[in-house]
Amino acid sequence: MKTPHAESDRKYDLAVVGAGPVGTSLAILAAQRGFSVVLIDARNPDITPRPDTRTFAIVRGSWRLLGATGATADLMELIEPLNGLEAIDGGTHVFGRPSVLFTNEDLPEDDDGEPLGQMVPAGALQASLDKLCAETDSLTWLRNTLFERMETHAAGATLTLSEGRTIEAGLVAACDGMKSAVRGDAGIKTEGHDYKQSVFAANVQLSSPHHGVARQLFTPEGPFATLPMPDNQANLAWYMKRGAAEALAELPVEDIEAELNGRFADFAGPMKIVGPVSAYPLVMQLATRMVGPRTALLGDSAHRINPLAGQGLNLGIKDVGALIDVMCEARDTGLDPGSDVMLEKYEKWRRFDAAASAMFMDGVDRAFSNDSALLKPFRGLALTAANKIGPLRRAMARQASADQTHQPSLMR
């Protein structure tokens, strides 16, 4: 990793704006493949970040891509195998609660014996990727540096950064989140809606073994999910009305535990809070385009979806894999990776999947977060069919785990 002087005006093949898991993964993989890369990171290394209590469900295909970066080696003692995904309709039903369970047996055998996925602590994943950024040749890491504006031209883009620094890049990757400044400079609009809900999040100690199964209970008020963690702990997400989740997070721990166990002990067993709790608003946002002049959008800058089934980061990882494949194809055929032709190829590959995933998660949330007498029979039929019809269940498991031949090469 090289750090240039402030007056550097070097031209890079790729400028990555934003250094979360999506941006750092992209920067590392592109540099490993011989592209000159600059990573623009707003984080100040002299300030200790707040603890990140999130746990990511990294599905099989995404775990393969992270393995290609080298980041998984430092995570092996911290992860929990994801061996199953269970969804239960918690509304009132005459004949019990319909449900569906996907397990490792529903996927093709993996050469390395990988399960459906891995549960990965967010902070540990970021730390592992940061370590690789510092060790990767052809990667310039500009820390404590803000993106200010961008101007594109026929041969590339000029980026103005904090302290007056300017750099040139043939391609700019916007990995700077929902409020992406790069997306704004590229003139790309967004559409979506606010769910008027928030998610209460916490880590809990379970009293019953979770066996590596992520469980989701659909209640009329919204989903309640437990995601397996090491030491028989779980990361939980409880969908509530806006304001209620925030209010719950402010209560004493014993009051939170009483509320949790009063509502969900019959589903998850008695739970005890471990560590801090939080709440965040639930929104859906999709960029109307995933590309602009010399610009590609990835991760939350392109799509923020309902976090049902934990597919948000996995979509961003698919974006990374697709852009790497497009860049390598362009170089191998003598084309410009930042040209309109190659960016359109990236957009065609990724836009439908992102939009379809957003609409599907939105539809599931709307269909199951109620106690409608009209919808319940159809919900029950859908869950029962998915659980009983082997080919359908296996196809859905492969989709959920990103274990398919049409995925980017690093995910296969």
TrEMBL record:
Domain of life: Bacteria
Cofactor(s) listed in the protein's UniProt record: FAD
Signal peptide extent: none
FAD-binding domain boundaries: 12-350
Membrane spanning stretches: none
Gene Ontology BP annotations: ubiquinone biosynthetic process
Pfam families tied to this protein: FAD_binding_3 (PF01494)
Pathway annotation: Cofactor biosynthesis; ubiquinone biosynthesis
GO terms of molecular function: FAD binding; monooxygenase activity; oxidoreductase activity, acting on paired donors, with incorporation or reduction of molecular oxygen
InterPro entries in the record: FAD-bd, FAD/NAD-bd_sf, UbiH/COQ6, UbiH/COQ6_monooxygenase
Record keywords, A-Z: FAD, Flavoprotein, Monooxygenase, Oxidoreductase
Family: Belongs to the UbiH/COQ6 family.
PANTHER family, alphabetized: UBIQUINONE BIOSYNTHESIS MONOOXYGENASE COQ6, MITOCHONDRIAL
Protein's recorded name: FAD-binding domain-containing protein
Species per Swiss-Prot/TrEMBL record: Hyphomonas pacifica
